[in-house]
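Aim 2 progress update. The chain analyzed this quarter is reproduced below.
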Amino acid sequence: MLGAATLDDDLWPSARLDHLLLRLPELASGALDLEQLLWAAPSEPMKALLSPSRAARVEAGPEHLDYLFRYQLAPRFQCIVVDGGCPGTELAPALRFWLGVADWLLVCTRATDRSIRSCLDLLSSASSVPGERRGGVVLALETRERADRVWARLEPTGCALWERPWVPRQALLAAQSHRPLAAVDRGTASSVAALLEGLAAVPGARHG
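Predicted structure tokens:
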């Protein structure tokens, strides 16, 4: 949803979570290196682990996710961003695990009334998950006026706010060419870069 990784995960079957879980024994023994499986950005030091395919039959148990996080992901990367998908009130077990170990909860949303309500619902639901984490909202916006109005609604939550352009035409072009949105839209690329650089900032700061 950030637009940082490719939209077509069919081109990267090895990078899907269900595929990777099947290969945990090889990763644990050192016979396979994690970075051989992950999606890789062409021009930035960024990797991505993609969501399971819809037909996946491999369940991601907490013990498997804990091993993956503690021994494979955390030692390799300075920053791990979990994209939980579209905002909603129900927290899947896997998402609850990631929230428990996360430093940040980032919610990607558009600046519509319905999306903001869902965003606030998710932030409220996440507060029931044990763990210390900061909250952040990545807002895809059309106009400056709407962004200011949305910020007024989000400010009481104490979340940091990052802004990115809402570019449906460029997103369609990216999907058709099997490229990340950040690779075809300069505004998206700069907003993703600002987000990754600003994750260590004090919560409540506003980032353009």
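DSSP finds nine helices and six strands in the chain. The radius of gyration is 17 Å. These observations will guide the mutagenesis experiments scheduled for the next reporting period.
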